[in-house]
Amino acid sequence: MGFAELWESLLTVGGDAAAGYRRFTWNDAELECRAWFRREAAARDLAVEEDRNGNLYAWWSPGGAAGRAVLTGSHFDSVPGGGAFDGPLGIVSAFAALDLLRERGFRPSRPVGIAAFAEEEGARFGVACLGSRLLSGEIDAERARGLTDAGGITFAEAAAAHGLDPALLGRDDERLGRIGCFVELHVEQGRALDVPVGVASAIWPHGRWRLDFHGHGDHAGTTRLADRRDPMLPFAHAVIAAREAAERHGTRATVGKVEVEPGGVNVIASRVTAWLDARGARDESVRETVADVRRTAEETAEGHGVGFALREESYTAVVDFNTALRDRLAAALGGVPVLPTGAGHDAGILSAHLPTAMLFVRNPTGVSHAPAEHAEPGDCLAGVEALATVLAELAG
Ligand code: GLV
Ligand code: MN
Ligand code: MN
Ligand code: MN
């Protein structure tokens, strides 16, 4: 099956691109994607496995293939209202590249695998790249077990409902030891690429912080202004502070999610919880951005009689991809551009444990994490060709 047909076959699985996807780890939409993965793997006689952390693999290991595998792939899960490309492009391209290699009579000397990692966006349980963090031991298994979704279901409970043993979640050295390298193909996410394909140099330091403002619920009409302890006010100051700090430090800071309790039009809020996403080229600038937000939130919370706490939920230091591997891939692709990104990826997590690399496919508008996310069909085909070249280079 050609790339276009394969791509089309996934577009309608668990949503539609125009409305934006809500493919969250192990919800119906994401499970449909996993079923699609199993069907496509079976149609190609690939052996499917799910590891003890919920990551899926399809293995091509014809006679004679031995040693540590070359792994490619990405993730199915989306952000709320996500586009079609972030994640799935890497998986569909992997199947299409494998088809090309087979058509061309290529026989790998090492096993070649396609991976679909769990909870890359962290949209359900809050920590991005949770599947690859668990696999590589980059998150404490006990902490992961206790992460909760919006309905209060813990990751351990959800994993058990999915058929995994919660006690076995966590670092999997045996599996990691079977992987020689990982190459993730991904749509580029910021209009940083003006040719069809590029190779990643680095991922910016980035993290997530939770801000809790505790006030006092009361009547919107009868409570005198002087008597209020309204958590919305320091929250609003914190949002503006994030923007201003990002401008000062040359970083990116976003408050894209907030929960207000109890959430009544005529009720002064009793609690506001917000999440700050901060990223930048330099670790210190990201730290300074968060410190500035914290200071403003603390000061304004105090001024309004509101309790405040800030907690780091995750932090990923700068990822410099394996230089030898990235130079080898850029050369194999005829000298394509090498560029950094402000987006996080499983490849970034695994890079501390394995040689990893990323291929980017041009995004003409740069829009991502939104329904308008796009890559032109011709560029996607160039991505498949590039991935096939890279797999042949690494598994030949
Ligand atoms: C993942 O896509 C991220 O960068 O948030
Ligand atoms: Mn994403
Ligand atoms: Mn992604
Ligand atoms: Mn104020």
From TrEMBL:
Keywords for this entry? Hydrolase
A Pfam family matched in the record: Peptidase_M20
InterPro entries (UniProt xref):
Amidase_Cbmase, Bact_exopeptidase_dim_dom, Peptidase_M20
Q: Signal sequence: where? A: none
Q: Which family does it belong to?
A: Belongs to the peptidase M20 family.
UniProt name for this protein: Allantoate amidohydrolase
According to its UniProt entry, this protein's organism is: Actinocorallia longicatena
Lineage, top ranks: Bacteria, Bacillati, Actinomycetota, Actinomycetes, Streptosporangiales
